[in-house]
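Bug #77: duplicate submission created two jobs. Keeping one. Sequence:
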Amino acid sequence: MARRRIEDKNIRKLSRIGNKSIGLTLPIDMVRELGWREKQKVMVKRVHGGILIKDWK
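Kept job's structure:
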């Protein structure tokens, strides 16, 4: 498998995780930058033109 070009680094595919769920893999450098950990709760909200994912308080 060939390596992605730099400008295509943040292009991701959606994957089916069961019957009714779809998952997305985030780049590890982005997750580390945000300080997120495995199994951390996050809030997903639909906004105009996309979605917003932020830490759950």
